[in-house]
Amino acid sequence: TMPKEPSVLRENILDTTAAILACGIDPKKCFLFRQSLVPEHAELAWILGCITNVPRLLRLPQWKMKCASQNNDGTVGLLTYPVLQAADILLYKSTRVPVGEDQVLHLELAQDIAQHFNKKYGEFFPIPRAILSEM
């Protein structure tokens, strides 16, 4: 949600990909892709953003903390990032999502958005459930 130099962003993408592969992820057994090259992520985020109310997003603790740390100058990107996360999950009709405790509320938002969408337009998205990581 913060602007990055394009060259640094490109390097970070390559470094992250190398780290994922170094961890043993086998690209022959899974899909490994650059999300920004899949326009459906942003398109679904737009659609879901049009059915998500702002007060719900303003109640998320991550928004409150980051906005406070930015002198109440939070950006639209920061506010709508959880909707993009919901789109990332729902686009693939995910049923189980590994999350840490700090992301449970964002997954609950994805669940709420899916339920709202399904109620309005018919059963389309499964309701994703959390797989909590153990630390």
UniProtKB/TrEMBL annotation:
- Enzyme Commission code(s) on record: 6.1.1.2
Keyword Ligase set for record: yes
Q: Which Pfam families match?
A: tRNA-synt_1b
> Which controlled-vocabulary keywords does the entry list?
Aminoacyl-tRNA synthetase, ATP-binding, Ligase, Nucleotide-binding, Protein biosynthesis
* GO CC terms, sorted: mitochondrial matrix
**Single annotated GO MF:** tryptophan-tRNA ligase activity
Q: Name one GO biological process term.
A: mitochondrial tryptophanyl-tRNA aminoacylation
Q: What does the similarity note say?
A: Belongs to the class-I aminoacyl-tRNA synthetase family.
Q: What is this protein called?
A: tryptophan--tRNA ligase
Whose protein is this, by species? Eudromia elegans
